[in-house]
Amino acid sequence: MKDNLSKIENQFWVMAAQDGNTAALEKLVSLWQKKLWKYVFRLTNDVHASWDITQQCWLEIIKGLRKLHNPKSFKAWAYRIATNRTIDWLKDKNKSQHINLESIEVDYNQKDNDLQVKELVQRLKNDSRVILSLYYFEQLNIPEISIALNIPPGTVKSRLFTAREELKQLWEKYFNN
Fold first, then answer.
1. pLDDT at 108 exceeding the cut of 70
2. How far apart are CA 59 and CA 62, in angstroms?
3. Which residue would you say has higher pLDDT here, 130 or 176?
4. Range 92-96 contact pairs with CB under 8 angstroms and sequence separation of 24 or more
5. Domain 100-177's class?
6. May I ask the CATH architecture of the domain 1-97?
7. Are the C-beta atoms of 104 and 174 separated by less than 8 Å?
8. What is the DSSP letter of 108?
9. Which of 107-111, 123-127, 128-132 has the highest mean pLDDT?
10. Is the backbone of residue 124 left (phi > 0), alpha (psi -120 to 50) or beta?
């Protein structure tokens, strides 16, 4: 019930901001700023770049908000913008290359499985990192991810499967010896 109320509230703020209500836009920013920053940080692992990218996202969101036809799709649309800006940054910084897993030391004594999973997610290819972050950390559903990445739902499902397999292989390599 609370989740449905927050969805309705979010749609209200979007519609009010589309009508030019600056207080509604400020509320929308306060609701989404931290979520978008965390998502971008998960993909870049760079605090300063994450803030810069998030600010770029907000400029794009504010410019395009009136063109958003369905306020219900704001979440997926905002994550699409964040994903695109982050991928651009990763390409510019030549971070789209695979990490040499052999050169990275892993703390096998880590007790917190969540930290281990987050660490492994950082080692995935960009596509896998994006899809897992959207699905598990940002809790977007398949249709929302489809909108966010501008790909068909079937492709989302296959990429999600591939990313899970990649994560599983990394887990087995480093933690099931």
1. no
2. 5
3. 130
4. 93/49, 95/44, 95/126, 96/126
5. mainly alpha
6. Orthogonal Bundle (1.10)
7. no
8. T
9. 128-132
10. beta
